Amino acid sequence: MDIRQEIENLRELIRYHNDRYYNQDDPEISDYEYDQLTIKLRKLEEEYPEYKTADSPTQIVGGSAKREAGILVKHNIPMLSLQDVFSKEEVFSFVEKILKERQDSRFVVEKKIDGLSVSLRYEDGRFVQGVTRGDGINYGEDVTENIREIKDVIMELKDPVPYLEIRGEVYMKNEDFEAVNDKLEAEGKKRFANPRNCAAGTLRQLDPQVVRERKLSLFAFNIQDVRGISFENHSESLSWLRNQGFKVIEDYKICKTAEEVWEAIKEIGENRGSLAYGIDGAVVKVDNLADREYFGATSKVPRWAVAYKYPPEEKETVLKDIRLSVGRTGRITPTAIFDPILLCGTTVERATLHNQDRIDELDVRIGDTIIVRKAGEIIPEVVTVVKDKRPEDTVPYKIPFVCPSCGGPAARDENSADIRCSNLNCPAQLTQHILNFVGRNAMDIKGFGEAYVEALIKEGYVKDIADIYYLDRYRDEMIEKGLIGKEKNTDKLLKAIEDSKKNDIDRLITGFGIRNIGRQAAYSLMKHFKSIHRLKEASYEELLEVKDLGDISSRAVIEFFSNPANIKILSRLEQAGVNFEWEEDTLAANNNLSGLTFVITGTLPTMGRSEMEELIKKHGGKVSGSVSKKTSFVVAGENAGSKLVKAEQLGIKVLSEEEILAMINQD
User: A Gene Ontology MF term for this entry (predicted)?
Assistant: First the structure.
């Protein structure tokens, strides 16, 4: 292959990975692997300048602005990327080059947060607009309504100025990321690969409620433009931002020499493993703003800043054991236990092995010498096995099909590499199972939050979903212990439980937590069988006749009703008076909305969203959470927001509450 073709192939490969990272929020390779591709391309372009082009990935800011994600907004100030450096020598070269022309320059060294860059605009002290980086030069996406849902974003400045534009990084704390993935897994949806992907995907959601639920965070790290006040230094502007109430990059250092800069970079590296969030390097910036103006920028990067990327730290250790644990969704996770090693400044002695496929791929065995590193500087992972040091008596490891928590049967998912406990009443997953049952999409028992569920499980009052309907027997005990609060709160929850007995049976079916049976599939089952008893006796062939059900879902239903523990729970639910039949008035509903898909947004005049959703489904329609080309109508009330905008962009007809009721009631 000639050099020109090699350069073109590299460019295409990097463009592909840019799209996966910036636009799809779903990268296929690590940051380190991506950096190596970029370094290789840059070196080839420097060695063969005759092949350098203006559209090369080395000359262009990474992403693009996506019209489908929101309204495009023109950048007032370009949101450039940073020049990456990978060695002490490169850091010293950068600092010395600055000092050669500006001897009194100082430098600010900050953590480089691994998230999604945004621009926040304020007019007369009030937040007015949030914009993503987009293509970095011309346009970004308007994410104003989603930005408003981030608690770290200040809506009103303490000291108003005519105009302020700041740059910040939207990110996700590690614990919030795990909570989102647990919820997605419980709903049978794809997990996010890392916190950065989750933060980026969440910010581009068209539903601000999703943003609120996922608890995004934001650090402010630069003032892009300001009127009505001036600053001499970057560090001075950060102090002002902090005084306004912003959360700014933590523990930044002000340095005068290359050696001080390097020590600050090393300190961040040593402590990065103990942070509550991910970083992907350290940023070195010129502090004086006039010096920044002097050095200027290229079409892609400022000349007054660089980003140092830490090399992945890898160490050898010996695998002592593989321990199995059960998550809240029943997934069995193997964890490597090894001799303690120091990685990224913290002691590490365990790392997830993910699943049996990963164990087989590594061919890792107890007693092996393994190489471990921290993926993304946060999560320990086993990279490889040193086969030359393998003891003779090792044997391949296989995860047994027995739950390590309850001893019940476990099975491998047909559509993934995960092995799960099939006992829905397994103690390890009971909290999530109960939360699913009482949640908005299932029995909708209002006020039954996670804290109450955990307290009732801990005290032994709830061991399965049927126990919920016998809690009234322990009213006085619960009040005395304060498990739900005082008398008023306890009675309020008990009444909500009692009221839920009258729910339509699709909510009950959803609450069972049968894998791959969500609300829509539950509704189809209810519509077809009209009774829990008939559903319980249904054959595989009969289940396949149901709309929205396939082979995997049908087998999951059979498996659920074949479990004696579940049959016992069903009996107790029926004895408690929970509805097992489809009410006749529901049967009488017409089918006027058959074949149509609706999205509900905003506040309707007389009905809640859940009520409207129920009504649409009862008349044959489907309800989706996001607007797409497949959406038939959007039902909009007041404060409809981005879903309404999306509908208008796609030319989808928007209905009022009155208009959809007319559709339902027409002959």
Answer: DNA ligase (NAD+) activity
Query: Is 344 known as a binding-site position?
Result: no
Tell me what the pLDDT averaged over the chain comes to: 86
């509908």: which residue's tokens?
A: 647
Residues 164 and 247 in one domain: yes
The alpha carbons of the chain give a radius of gyration, in whole angstroms, of 28
CB-CB contact of 236 with 252 (8 Å): no
Determine whether 40 is an active site residue. no
User: Any idea what the CATH number is for the domain that residue 244 is in?
Assistant: 3.30.470.30
34 is in an annotated binding site: yes
From the list 472, 487, 485, 478, the residue with the least C-alpha distance to 457 is: 478
Tens digit of pLDDT for each residue in 170-207?
A: 999 988 888 888 787 776 667 787 788 888 888 877 77
Are residues 182 and 230 located together in one domain of the fold? Answer: yes
* Whole-Å CA distances, 648 to 256, 311, 388, 454, 653: 54, 47, 63, 44, 8
Query: What is the per-residue DSSP string for 130-151?
Result: EEE-TTSSSEEEB-HHHHTT-T
32 is in an annotated binding site: yes
CA separation, residue 477 to residues 453, 490, 491, 535, 602 (Å): 16, 11, 12, 37, 42
- Asked if 410 and 420 count as a contact pair (C-beta separation under 8 A), the reply is yes
CA distance 93 to 484: 63
309 among annotated binding-site residues: yes
Residue 251 counted as an annotated binding residue: no
Q: Is 285 annotated as a binding residue?
A: yes
From the list 40, 88, 97, 112, the catalytic residue is 112
Domain that holds residue 550: 427-585
Q: Give the separation between CA 177 and CA 195, rounded to whole angstroms.
A: 6
Both structure tokens of 56: 């090369």
Q: How far apart are the first and last CA of the chain?
A: 71
594 and 560 within one domain: no
User: Which strand (E) or helix (H) includes residue 110?
Assistant: strand 107-113
245 and 283 share one domain: yes
Cβ–Cβ < 8 Å for 167, 118: yes
The closest alpha carbon to 225, from 88, 39, 77, 440, belongs to: 77
> Per-residue pLDDT averaged across 136-155, rounded?
90
Report DSSP letters for 547-588, one per residue.
TT--HHHHHHHHHHHH-HHHHHHHHHHHHTT---B--HHHHT
Q: Is 406 marked as a binding-site residue? A: yes
Region of 221 on the Ramachandran plot (φ > 0 left; ψ -120 to 50 alpha; else beta): alpha
Instruction: Check the annotation: does 42 bind a ligand.
Output: no
Does 198 share its domain with 214?
Answer: yes
On whether 444 is known to bind a ligand per the annotation, the reply is no
CA distance 405 to 424: 12
For 87-145, the pLDDT digits (tens) are 999 999 999 999 999 999 999 999 999 899 999 999 999 999 999 988 888 888 889 98
Q: How many helices (H) and strands (E) does the chain have?
A: 25, 22
403 is an annotated ligand-binding site residue: yes
Q: Compute CA 317 distance to the chain's CA centroid, rounded to the nearest angstrom.
A: 32
Q: Residues 78, 200: one domain?
A: yes
What is the residue-wise DSSP string for 181-217?
HHHHHHTTPPPPSSHHHHHHHHHT-S-HHHHHHHT-E
- Tell me which DSSP letter residue 297 carries: B
Pairing of strands 597-601, 419-421: unpaired
Provide DSSP, 589-650. ---TTTT-EEEEESB-SS--HHHHHHHHHHTT-EEESS--TT--EEEE-BT-THHHHHHHHH
Residue matched to tokens 């969030």? 277
Strand partners, 385: 370
